[in-house]
Amino acid sequence: MASISYRQNPNPIFAPVTLMTGSPAFSRASSSLAVNMKRSYENALNLLETRRRKARPTAPAPSTGQDSPIPIASAVKGIPSLENDVDRLNIIHVTGTKGKGSTCAFTRSFLHAHGVRTGFPKRIGLYTSPDLQCIRERIQIDNQPITEDLFTRYFFEVWETLAAPNQAQSTRQPRYLQLLLLLAFHTFIKEGIDAAIVETHHGGEYCATNVVRRPIVTGITSLGLDHVAQLGPTVEDIAWHKSGIFKPGAPAFSVVQDPGPAEVLQKRAAERNTALTFVSPSDTLPVNNRVLSVPVQRLNCSLAIQLASAFLQAKDSKQVLSSDDISKGIDNFSWLGRFETIKSGNSQWYLDGAHNPLSLEQAAEWFANNVNATERPMYRVLIFSHFSEERDGVDLLTTLAHALSRHKALPNHVIFTTYHEREDGSTRIDKTLKVPETPFPDLCSIYSSLWKEFHPDATVSTEPTIEQAIRRAEQISHQEGAMEAFVTGSLHLVGGALSLLRP
Fold first, then answer.
1. Is the pLDDT of residue 418 over 80?
2. Where do the segments described as Disordered lie (predicted)?
């Protein structure tokens, strides 16, 4: 059994640990693929890409019957076995339907502010998904994606260990996300992280991230219907899956939920022998219109305060998250592509990667709160794109149209576009685009017809790339003298827009 040893780790917080790789490893074909391969960032990305599955499973995992927590020795089918190394990473484990990324980012920001003041934690790791602009966003240390050099070095250390001849004959390869998770754990251990915030991929009980046996604290954000093919069909089923991250002795926190899923969470907490606390929006949060202008962010922020506070108390009863830590954490909060604004000349851009009904409702409210607060109404443009085999784009667009109408923030001009970023066809090597089977022009035509039915007075157009959609909006701004543009519907769209608006 191969291993990656951390016995030389200079950080005294961690005892000697070993990353064991007993469940999946690499076949002879994958092993030969890396023979004599140069250790470059691009080659690491190419090897990682070979582990991407064509599509997610369509059959739901069981959500009733016997509780079956994931044994660390064999984990879920296809997930590498990890021994005591992960247990010593001081993990905050977060799941939910909407707000996971923001909650993780708030938690990181609070712990960072506390660390600056007290000296602990000094280094904070964050594992999250998906990425908007580059794959390294998924593995961050101290508020920055790891460098290309670190990504390359640690990727090949993991890859070559898994591809060792004594591994290749008896075991199978980890998939794309499982390999990224291994890379994140390996990176955090080698870099001496004091606290690691880990966001689930989706689900919880059968998520690869649930190899974490001893988190310091766990958290659940708002629940809703998403990934129903794997987790559904009801929100109670989804609550069962999400609460799979609860562990004995690790305090659990959840934002307030509807009665049905709340009951499921309480039952699961009792089964897992942990205390569950429901968190409402705090009425003592400082005023910050940039960060807390939308109610859901106040809720995510309140949950993060509880997670950070419980983490510090668990590590040292004398550690207390102060009001100054909270204030500075909020002031320094940032989360790429979520409730993000960019000012450019006379144009104001509002970007949110919402891609399910719940998140689109919240994004529409946030946009309306901002544009309706301006003294002089400006011309409004909506740029929308969503192409997925898992979600109904027509349903999402319908949700968005009704939400914008209800909040009196309907656009004057709607631009539908694709996930293709640049007009010349160039792409970034560390951003992979999954193109759906349904042709883009057909879907854009469907979206255009649908919007004209909703709001006949709106001007509707389509553009073949994100770059051309941005350019079209800028031309409109020039013609109208000013513009407020709302970019939403997909993380692919928002990531591409950000790379153009703020390279």
1. yes
2. 51-71
**Dihedral over alpha carbons 259, 249, 140, 157 (to 10 degrees):** -130
Are residues 355 and 298 part of one domain? no
| Residue that is last in its domain, among 309, 331, 353 | 331
φ and ψ of 8, to 5 deg = -95, 10
- Residues 253 and 366 both lie in one domain: no
What pLDDT was estimated at residue 130?
Answer: 86
Clarify whether residues 270 and 395 are in a common domain.
no
Question: CA dihedral defined by 346, 352, 356, 361, rounded to 10 degrees?
Answer: -60
| CATH number of 322's domain | 3.40.1190.10
CA distance linking residue 500 with residue 134, whole number of Å: 14
Closest Cα to residue 244, out of 101, 32, 96, 343?
Answer: 96
- pLDDT band, residue 375 (cuts 50/70/90): confident
Structure tokens at 382: 């909506």
Question: Could you give the number of structural domains in the chain?
Answer: 2
- Per DSSP, the three-state class of 348 is strand
Contacting residues for 483 by C-beta, under 8 A, at least 6 apart: 346, 347, 348, 378, 379, 380, 381, 473, 476, 477
Same-domain check for residues 446 and 309: no
Q: Which residues pair with 172 in a beta bridge?
A: 24
Average pLDDT over residues 189-210: 92
Burial grade of 488 (CB within 10 A; 0-12, 13-18, 19 or more): buried
At residue 58 the predicted structure's pLDDT band, cuts being 50, 70 and 90, is low
Residues 403 and 455: their CA atoms lie apart, in Å, by: 13
Which CATH number is 382's domain given?
Answer: 3.90.190.20
323 and 411: one domain? no
269 and 369 within one domain: no
Confidence at 166, pLDDT banded by 50, 70, 90: low
DSSP states of 241-252 as a string?
Answer: HHGGG--TTS-E
149 labeled part of a ligand binding site: no
Whether residue 250 sits in one domain with residue 390: no
- For residue 374, what are its two tokens? 């301006």
The pTM assigned to this predicted structure is 0.83
Residue ending a domain, among 331, 365, 388, is: 331
Buried b (16+ CB within 10 A) or exposed e, 450-470: bbeebbeebebebbebbbbbb
User: Is 199 flagged in the annotation as binding?
Assistant: yes
Tell me, what's the pLDDT at 66? 35
- Asked if residue 263 belongs to a known ligand binding site, the reply is no
Residues 233 and 119 in one domain: yes
In this structure, what token pair is assigned to residue 65? Answer: 């019957």
For residue 24, pLDDT over 90 is answered with: no
pLDDT, position 62? 54
Q: Would the annotation count 226 as a binding residue?
A: no
Q: What is the DSSP string of 306-319?
A: HHHHHHHHHH-TT-
- pLDDT tens digit sequence for 360-372: 998 999 999 889 8
State which residues form the domain around 432. Answer: 340-501
